[in-house]
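Thread: Newbie trying to understand structure tokens

Hi all, I'm a second-year student working on a class project, and my supervisor (Dr. K.) asked me to get a predicted structure for one chain before our next meeting. I've only ever worked with sequences, so writing a 3D structure as a token string is new to me. If someone could post the tokens and maybe explain what I'm looking at, I'd be very grateful. Here's the chain:
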Amino acid sequence: MIKISDLQSKDVVNISDGRKLGQIHDLEVDLRQGQVKALVVPGESRLFGLWSGGKEWVIPWSQVLKIGTDVILVRLDLHRDHSEDFWESRPLLTHHAESGR
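---
Reply by user tm_fold:
Sure, no problem. This is what the structure looks like when written as tokens:
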């Protein structure tokens, strides 16, 4: 078993292009099924850990290949899959009462 705090200290790397996307700051979890649905990594414009312009990488759990001791390897073929599919713009703090998040 792995703790969320352990995941947050690991770098997320896209093996398709070798790009370091950053570190996890949130997870999307399906509470009914007890499954992690996606990793959420803040965008590059994050300033002092507080502001990212609302843009985040949302990486589906199906794209996570390996969780190592200090890195999480993901496969995002941004040229084929269009980066917009993984790049979301949303408020920094959100509350989704109806979806259980």
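A couple of things are worth pointing out once you decode it. Residues 4-8 form the longest helix (5 residues). The chain has two helices and eight strands. Feel free to ask follow-ups in this thread.
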